[in-house]
Amino acid sequence: MNAYSLDLRKLVVAFVEEGHTQAEEARQFKLYPGTISRWIKLKRTTGSLKAVAVPRSPHKLPLDALEKYEKEHPDAFLREIGSHFSCGKDAVARALKKLGFTRKKTKKFTGKGMNRKGKYLLIK
Fold first, then answer.
1. Cα separation of 25 and 21, whole Å?
2. Mean pLDDT of the region 37-56
């Protein structure tokens, strides 16, 4: 979603400085009142109404290191891999998917004489 134009921001803040309420502004300009409050606070703190870029964190998972770790520890859980790389299990799952690794579980054998948990039953 794109930021509102600087001209609109200036117009809305000038409207409030004339003595109108934020509710009136919200109705007239069809904006959310919280947006207007943030713009007023932004002007008060920085002196400008220019949109502030949100800093993004860099990618935490180097794919080559993840691939090496996965080959060394093929039975590691996602949470274990995540704790090794200091990230969440969802990030690990997405990165592994990019690398082509699957994390599918195999079903336990439930043949004759075994229960669903894989333990043998006594059959007479």
1. 6
2. 86
